[in-house]
Amino acid sequence: MTEQTVVGCIGLGNMGGVLASNLVSAGFEVVAHDAAGAARTPVGARWAPTLKDVALAADVVVLSLPDGGVCAPVVRELDETRDRRVTHVVDTSTVGVVAARHMAALEVAYIDAPVSGGISGARERTLMVMYAGTDEACAHVEPVLAGLSDRRRRVGDRAGQAQAVKLANNFLSATALAATSEAVAFGQAAGLDMAVMLEVLNASSGRSGATADKFPAEVLTGRYASGFSNTLMAKDMRLYLREVAELGGANAMATAARAVWEAFATVEPGADFTRVYPFTAGS
Questions:
Q1: How confident is the model at residue 13 (pLDDT cuts 50, 70, 90)?
Q2: Residue 1: what pLDDT?
Q3: How far is residue 116's CA from residue 180's CA, in Å, rounded to a whole number?
């Protein structure tokens, strides 16, 4: 890959817009597209009106889309564009193991590369990019992955393996946040100060990403602005359980956690997922 490599970015929402900006800052020429229109185009990127325009202009395309149902037709259109320039697709979306494997069967090289760390992690370049694909494909897009974040880990040589890690991560994150919400609500009902409770939990065996990050940054401050919705978390829990069923794995904890997220997403669709605390506490 040369300095003249053009990177396409499709999906410029909360996460995708930051990733596109990171690539611009890393020195790439970026051509961007979003179904919502040109208004989200990051400074320094060039707007592409259609997916075909992206396929004809970019060498590598980075996707940041809601789910596999959205990603699959996008990848197919890129793959089927006549005289396309794009040869590799880096999919940072959470689409599931099965969807990733299907997209990897197309002619365009597909790198399964979901991310974790939130919008703040993307801005600070601490986002974890977990990726899987063939040796050739991963080596080819390594400079683009480096443009996305300073934290990257190849987890396997087959598309779908990074999705498995991401879904396991989101299951743990969702369960910890819901469980911490119940525990903190219990503590407050007993008259405890939330800040004091978090301080003790973070020095004890109950520590998790929820107690160390989500609660101090979003719940304790009342910000509730992590940039990730309860609707997407409920989707990820459904996807995780579907994939577990395919493999015949245990699902008791995930089933219970999913019920919480489905209920929350039904009552307050689109709310920031950290608002599971007031939902749980009934406030």
A1: very high
A2: 52
A3: 19
pLDDT tens profile 75-102? 999 999 999 999 999 999 999 999 999 9
Helical axes 161-189 vs 252-267, angle rounded to 10°:
70
Q: What's the CA gap between 213 and 61, in Å, rounded?
A: 31
* Whole-structure pTM value: 0.92
- Dihedral (C-alpha) 185, 257, 94, 210: value to the nearest 10 degrees? 30
Residues in contact with 123: Cβ distance below 8 Å, sequence separation at least 6, in sequence order = 18
Rounded Cα distance, 6 and 32, in Å: 10
3-class secondary-structure state, position 84:
coil
Neighbouring-strand partners of residue 60: 7, 88
Sign of the torsion angle spanned by Cα atoms 213, 218, 221, 225: positive
Q: Is 240 exposed, middle or buried (0-12, 13-18, 19+ CB in 10 A)?
A: buried
Say what the pLDDT of residue 176 is. 98
